């Protein structure tokens, strides 16, 4: 489990990135939720018209980026998660429980959120309510986690305080870090001051290529070549000689001057080897950089290959996005078809009409009468909660003109009802900031052509800065409610 990238500094770096991503998702998610379920009296900006397109695209992109970051963080802290004993006291138990809540909630949140972008719901609970509730659980447990690990975070916030001059991680058990560098056994293998017997035991590597690879990974010195076998004693030649004492030994000039003898194939001297600390530090740096390079590549990859569903810049790389831009009727994708909504007959009925009900006056308009009122054009995006979005050109009757036709008071709210008989968004309410905006239309045309049935024919709502689920299609009634 010991690895140079599994240390407190790596955990802090990944934690920072995850914290930013979770906060971005939380902020943009709350904004989307309030747009759909506002508190009484709330008003929202209508400019820029691409506001929701930006915030929801950022929400989905940050959520997808969390997946590789979360996997990397779990890999980094794995030694602490599987430590023995798993619990060392009551406070430690509470800390472990908070981590369990944070990790499990995060996994469920990003997993179900990703499935929602593809409109696949294999889970047995309502997505919107659970997704909203888990957001608060994650932020709450994240605050607890940061508070518990604050000393570790402060201690290892900066790289220069986390590594020594050689690039080795500096452990500090006084701040409560459970992530330690590789074991002392590995350090002992690299210590040239060890006794010969201990060194031989610590460096028992297999022979051949496997042994060389393991030595390279551990930063251990190369094995010394085996000494040549001792020559067999010349017993026969000595048998016939008289015992004349030890034979004279030839001494080289260098030996006579006190120089050590050189042997062929001997190990280099210690002075010629790089320092052990420097070698270990270099290898740790390489391992850490490789790990973070892999995390960065994975994060950039998943973002670049999905962000094209909401960004024109990344559109050429949109390989895994749930929707492809410019694909669908009138060059615009469709989320919910007329068949799925069950409006094939009612939306194409010859007697269709739109009822606009004011406080004192109520009027009914056929499609031809709506056109006769006068139409306006607006360039507005469709921005869906699943993350995809696209700008389009709409033409229709201004909402404020219809409200004036029924003598609605300025600052009125409206309720719009669809031909759909089922679904959570068949009835939609719109605040006065949208109802009075000159670009809010009862749209009759899309991109220069009559509305396609799947895009809301005979008439639909389009307004600036609103989620796609609130751009009601197949409308039959507009009612002034305040």
From TrEMBL:
The chain crosses the membrane at residues 12-31, 51-72, 93-114, 134-154, 290-308. Coiled coil: none annotated. It comes from the Bacteria. GO terms for biological process: respiratory electron transport chain. One of its GO terms (cellular component) is membrane. InterPro entries: Di-haem_cyt_TM, Mopterin_OxRdtase_euk, OxRdtase_Mopterin-bd_dom, OxRdtase_Mopterin-bd_sf. This is DMSO/TMAO reductase YedYZ molybdopterin-dependent catalytic subunit/uncharacterized membrane protein. It comes from Curtobacterium luteum.
């Amino acid at each position: 489990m010991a690895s140079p990238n599994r240390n407190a500094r790596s955990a802090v770096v990944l934690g920072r990135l995850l914290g930013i991503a979770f906060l971005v998702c939380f902020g943009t998610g709350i904004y989307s939720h309030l747009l759909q379920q506002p508190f009484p009296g709330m008003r929202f900006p209508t400019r820029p018209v691409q506001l929701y397109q930006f915030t929801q695209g950022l929400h989905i992109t940050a959520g997808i980026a969390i997946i590789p970051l979360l996997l990397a963080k779990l890999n980094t802290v794995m030694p602490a998660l599987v430590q023995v004993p798993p619990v060392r006291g009551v406070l430690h138990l509470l800390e472990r429980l908070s981590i369990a809540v944070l990790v499990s909630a995060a996994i469920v949140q990003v997993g179900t959120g990703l499935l929602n972008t593809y409109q696949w719901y294999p889970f047995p609970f309502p997505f919107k309510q659970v997704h909203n509730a888990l957001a608060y659980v994650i932020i709450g447990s994240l605050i607890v986690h940061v508070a518990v690990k604050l000393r570790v975070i402060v201690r290892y916030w900066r790289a220069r305080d986390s590594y020594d001059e050689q690039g080795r991680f500096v452990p500090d058990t006084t701040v409560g870090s459970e992530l330690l560098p590789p074991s002392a056994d590995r350090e002992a293998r690299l210590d040239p001051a060890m006794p010969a017997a201990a060194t031989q035991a610590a460096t028992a590597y297999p022979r051949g290529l496997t042994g060389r690879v393991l030595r390279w990974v551990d930063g251990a010195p190369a094995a010394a070549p085996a000494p040549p076998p001792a020559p067999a004693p010349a017993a026969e030649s000595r048998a016939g000689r008289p015992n004349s004492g030890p034979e004279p030994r030839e001494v080289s000039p260098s030996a006579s001057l006190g120089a050590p003898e050189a042997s062929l194939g001997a190990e280099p001297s210690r002075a010629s080897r790089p320092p052990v600390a420097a070698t270990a530090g270099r290898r740790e740096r390489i391992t850490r950089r490789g790990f973070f390079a892999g995390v960065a590549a994975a994060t950039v990859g998943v973002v670049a290959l999905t962000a094209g569903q909401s960004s024109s810049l990344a559109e050429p790389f949109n390989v895994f996005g749930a929707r492809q831009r410019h694909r669908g009727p009138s060059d615009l994708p469709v989320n919910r078809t007329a068949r799925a909504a069950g409006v094939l007959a009612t939306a194409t009925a010859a007697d269709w009409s739109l009822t606009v009900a004011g406080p004192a006056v109520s009027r009914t308009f056929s499609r031809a009468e709506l056109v006769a009122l006068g139409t306006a054009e607006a360039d507005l995006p469709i921005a869906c909660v699943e993350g995809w979005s696209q700008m389009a050109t709409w033409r229709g009757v201004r909402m404020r003109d219809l409200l004036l036709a029924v003598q609605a008071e300025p600052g009125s709210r409206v309720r719009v009802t669809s031909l759909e008989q089922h679904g959570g968004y068949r009835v939609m309410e719109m605040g006065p900031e949208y109802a009075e905006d000159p670009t809010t239309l009862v749209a009759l045309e899309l991109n220069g052509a009559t509305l396609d049935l799947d895009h809301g024919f005979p008439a639909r709502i389009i307004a600036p800065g609103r989620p796609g689920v609130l751009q009601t299609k197949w409308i039959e009634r507009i009612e002034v409610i305040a």
